[in-house]
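Weekly modeling sync, notes
Attendees: S.R. (lead), two postdocs, one rotation student

Agenda item 3: backlog of single-chain predictions. S.R. asked that every request posted to the team notebook include the full sequence so nobody has to chase files. The rotation student volunteered to paste the first one in as an example of the format we agreed on. Action items at the bottom.

Example entry:
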Amino acid sequence: METSCPFTEGQKFRVRHDYAYLNHAFRAGEEVVFSSCAYDAHGGVTRYWFRSVASGDTNVWHAFDDQTTDKDLHEMFEPINAA
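Predicted structure, as returned to the notebook:
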């Protein structure tokens, strides 16, 4: 179920909840910058790439068609408004 990407490249977020999947991890309170997203129809997953402001590391958040809703995505990442 491919959808358009809900984030804008370069948008900054604060991670609201710890998350770990495979070799990717986000920590609550971490500031990240959105890079891109891609849908994998075979795996039924949309992957969202973010770069950590503090470390520069890139991590991926996985949103599975049968497990993840748009609400989950917005509960995971809180937009940070530029001052």
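Discussion: group reviewed the output briefly. The mean pLDDT is 90.
Action items: rotation student to repeat for the remaining queue; S.R. to check formatting next week.
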